[in-house]
Amino acid sequence: MSLIQLLEFDQKGDERGTLVALESLKNIPFAIQRVYYLVSLDAKQPRGFHAHKQLKQVAICLSGSCTFVMDDGHDKEDIILQSPAVGLYIAEMMWHEMSNFSKDCVLMVLASDYYDESDYIRCYHEFKKRAAL
Ligand code: TYD
Q: Which residue from 4, 68, 114, 132 has the highest number of Cβ atoms inside 10 Å of its Cβ?
């Protein structure tokens, strides 16, 4: 199965613009507990470099573009996000790295739980060991 799981959201568009609605357990596969977003990103400074033990997330590039590398400990795949109507599902135990941010990149992330540093695996070696279990 591909490591890249994309969610395509309905776009309600008319001459006034486009509207996309995101709803817990409907077009988002978990109950949303937290939303955060990344702005003023630097193309030369990649981010992420961690996995989560339990947390599930959906990343949506609302403006501009960026690249995600997804790594389950066995395989790696990358994807360019560049549509506000597409979400990238980031399951638990998926190492992810973000890079190549365009100047206008606005990256929004929906998360299944509150921020908890103890849910992070920030050491790639530890991630590989856990992924092999
Ligand atoms: P970090 O995990 O390093 O960001 P990224 O994965 O994009 O590289 O987070 C940056 C800082 O923000 C770090 O001090 C943790 C903090 N943070 C919160 O306080 N709440 C949150 O919801 C998130 C995602 C991060």
A: 68
Residues of the chain with pLDDT under 50: none
pTM for the model: 0.97
**Ligand 1 cavity residues, CB under 6 Å:** 34, 36, 38, 47-48, 115
Q: Cite the active site residues.
A: 50
Residue bearing the CA closest to ligand 1, atom 23: 115
The pLDDT of residue 69: 98
Residue with tokens 């937290």: 34
Q: What is the whole-number distance in angstroms between the Cα of residue 97 and the centre of ligand 1?
A: 13
16: how many CB neighbours lie within 10 A of its CB? 7
What gap in Å lies between CA 68 and CA 82, rounded to an integer?
11
